[in-house]
Amino acid sequence: MYKITSFLSFTQQAHSLSLCTKDWFSLLLDISKIAAPYQKYLTTQIQLSMDASREADISVLPEGCISDVLSFTTPRDACTLSTVSSLFNNAAQSDAVWERFLPADFRSIICRSGDHHSLLASSSSKKHLFFRLCQNPILIDDGRRSFVLDKWTGKKCYMLSARDLAIVWSDTPDYWRWVPDPGSRFAEVAELIGVCWLEINGRINTQMLSPATMYTAYLVFKLATGASGFRSQNAEVSVGLAGSTFSFKRSVLLDARIGRGRNLLLDNWFGSKAYVPAGGGDGRYPEVRKDGWLEIKLGEFLNKESEDGELEMSITEVKGGHWKHGLVVQGIEIRPKIE
Q1: Residue 274 to residue 335: CA distance in whole angstroms
Q2: Tens-digit pLDDT profile for residues 298-307
Q3: Which of 102, 246, 321, 338 is deepest in the core (most CB within 10 A)?
Q4: What one-character DSSP code corresponds to residue 144?
């Protein structure tokens, strides 16, 4: 997907009417060079418009041609360019543009949701559907996973619910219990009653992820009032392909009160106070999410173009031998890394 680093300067010039049609044609030709297999068609259409335009009037370029070119940019760039003129705005609303920003398998993903008929029927356009999938995660696979799009890139994001994870001893009521939580996107979360062996594993097929994309995996959790056993003992986290000799491994601390640097005093979800790092750390400590939960980075994974395998993510604390209580697990989220 093409990225134009000078879009802002181009749009600023366009708004001040200092960008001539020749410059716009040059820009569109530059974009069209990466629009295979339609490069020849797009280049021909743009060149014909250039030849026909003796005056500085970008409107001679067919709207459909602009739409074709915009579809090879990114959602962010298309929205930016839509502010240039009414012609670009109309082109940027095209279903042809936004269907290309949607994943190629978006229909099959939506069909794994319980309300897929209403979602598709109530979306007035592909752009409308795109932003609904960005703003409202949908539950798929019998409510065990959620799916959402990254609004800037259109890349796929998933969260595996606690029920979709392999949590050691989670089927033993003396150690874990399953409870509803109004702040969770899933029907229930896993709450730790007490274990000395903490082990949580998740898997997802790499074919479900966007290709040629660097992903980061996070454990999404919170600590109940009276939680203990997480302040002094490191947990080991890892991310990598199943069966691979290479994986991303490191140590983290799950207790937010241990974080270095500037701290925030927040009301936690059970009425007590907790100090939480205000960002800027090295990923070894939990960060507060926009939804109020905490997340800890498990690792990164580059999903190559032809990758086909199982991505494994894990967090363990089995060396200390001491008991741990009060961990509440919503799931593991896999989302594109922010550059």
Answers
A1: 27
A2: 999 999 988 8
A3: 102
A4: T
